[in-house]
Design a protein that fits this description.
single chain, Rossmann fold, 15 strands, alpha/beta, 9 helices, seven-stranded mixed β-sheet, VC0802-like, binds S-adenosylmethionine
Length: 364
């Protein structure tokens, strides 16, 4: 099986490393926020349930060059959908498009949807039902310039939605990016980790989930692959139990602090819902002891905190405090204002956070 994996733009190499660790296969980066890997059916379960960096796992059925919607129709119609959908199942096409075209992604979805219906009707003599709101099977069609990728979504809602965020911070970090920061820090469970601007605690929670080998527990029943009858679903149930048996709960030296008691209380709630144990406390990051092995954090962007002057002052104070502290071995900082740091980082990775250009700065 050819699997198309999506992740956040900028963290593809972390995702490739995680895929190798999880399924012992080499994934190749196939563009921004995308990886490809050859795997078997079991890998679909493992990647969905156990990965922390991926957003979606798509079983790729077709990759084809095309220029007109007619060509797209013919390419999609050539897929043997009878192998993947049962006659009573409803489906929907979800389409996305990148590049210059004289058609929209809605046109792509409409044409591809008709091609699925016609292909199935010709092969099986049954007209498949379309259900745009709650389809049993989701066919993904991605158009990138003159190439179309057609596949079956095995995930559903993006995997970065872990389900533990009961407290909503106004500027939360995606769990997949939080996990990537922890991996870039090369943190291991024996080392202490501190997030001095922890907000709702995502970085600390993701570090703990990683150390405990915690699967995506709260998403267990929501994956779209449960509807795919051509997959060995009985075996998948056993694999869930095996993955859960590998969870290694232990005490971890992970701490997070924030200047806002409200966010600290929220971080505790989120950690509890995630089922991990992390210590959160209220403190000013420019005064707290930065005594730790790895410091991993996401600084305020200045969009909500007020004036640019205020944010520049906070960055300067924190940088001075960081440099004066001698214990940490590596600091990994995600920021929307990298230019406010005077010290040259050992490494800089630019990533887009939604529409916001941000950078991961690594200091050693
Ligand atoms: C971008 S948010 C962090 C979001 C967090 N990563 C999450 O996923 O929820 C930055 C946080 O820094 C906190 N903050 C601002 N100034 C601070 C200071 N001097 N000391 C500690 N925290 C501070 C804010 O309250 C905010 O929660």
């Amino acid at each position: 099986m050819e699997l198309l994996l999506t992740t956040e733009r900028g963290i593809e190499s972390v995702a490739a490393q995680e895929v190798r660790e999880l399924i012992r296969r080499r994934a190749s980066v196939a563009g921004e926020g995308r990886l490809r890997v050859r795997g078997d059916a079991r890998d679909i379960l493992t990647l969905n349930y156990c990965s922390n960096s991926l957003h979606r796992v798509v079983l790729l059925l077709l990759e084809s060059e095309f220029s007109t919607l007619d060509e797209l129709y013919r390419a999609v119609k050539g897929i043997a959908f009878g192998e993947y959908l049962s006659p009573e199942q409803s489906f929907a096409v979800r389409a996305s498009r990148m590049g210059e075209h004289d058609f929209t992604s809605l046109d792509v979805a409409r044409v591809a949807g008709q091609a699925v219906i016609d292909s199935y009707a010709e092969a099986r003599g049954v007209r498949l039902k379309v259900n745009l709101d709650a389809p049993e099977v989701v066919v993904r069609v991605e158009v990138r310039q003159s190439t179309c990728y057609v596949g079956i979504d095995t995930t559903g809602e993006s995997l970065h939605r872990r389900g533990y965020r009961v407290y909503q911070h106004p500027a939360p970090l995606k769990p997949s990016i939080s996990y990537a920061l922890v991996r870039i820090a090369e943190w291991s469970a024996e080392e202490s980790l501190l997030d001095p601007f922890c907000g709702s605690g995502t970085i600390c929670i993701e570090a703990a989930r990683y150390a405990w080998r915690m699967p995506n527990l709260l998403r267990r029943e929501s994956f779209l692959f449960w509807k795919l009858k051509f997959l060995p679903l009985e075996e998948f149930r056993e694999m869930l139990v095996e993955a859960e048996a590998r969870v290694r709960k232990r005490e971890l030296p992970i701490r997070g602090c924030d200047i806002s008691p409200k966010h600290v209380a929220g971080a505790r709630q989120n950690a509890e819902r995630a089922g991990v144990a992390v210590s959160f406390f209220t403190c000013d990051a420019t005064r707290v002891s930065l005594d730790c092995d790895k410091l991993v954090t996401n600084l305020p962007y200045g969009l909500r905190i007020g004036s640019r002057y205020k944010i520049a002052r906070l960055y300067r104070k924190f940088e001075r405090h960081l440099l004066a502290s001698e214990t940490w071995k590596r600091a990994v900082i995600l920021t929307g204002a990298p230019e406010l740091f005077e010290t040259e980082p050992a490494q800089r990775i630019d990533i887009m956070y939604g529409s916001l250009p941000t950078a991961i700065l690594v200091f050693d």
